[in-house]
Amino acid sequence: QVQLVESGGGLVQAGGSLRLSCAASGRTFSTYTMAWFRQAPGKEREFVAAITWNSGDTHYASSVKGRFTISRDNAKNTVYLQMNSLKPEDTALYYCAADPQGSYIYMRVYDYDYWGQGTQVTVSS
Known about the structure:
Blueprint: E1 4-7, E2 10-13, E3 18-24, E4 33-39, E5 46-51, E6 58-60, E7 68-73, E8 78-83, E9 92-99, E10 114-115, E11 119-124
Parallel strand pairs: 2-11
Antiparallel strand pairs: 1-3, 3-8, 4-5, 4-9, 5-6, 7-8, 9-10, 9-11
């Protein structure tokens, strides 16, 4: 069982930056693929970025590629999402998710077994 707690969200102007963190409980964090998803009001939850257990592979949604960077620190049981050049369309509730298989990256909500409660990111124009 893994518990995930996101932090770092907030209100920022367009063009600004935020860094989200996701702290995980449990000794198996280092073996999991970790991902960030987001959900805007009235829209479906969508994939943002993911990273394999050893940081050997990362993948990004086309809408954030080049602006967002996912990373992890297994010693701290934490995964990060550095978000730069933020746009109003990045406004959403951002969720951290964990996939126990660890070696591959999947982009579907149902591939992830564990979820945090989300942190709100609001980008003003």
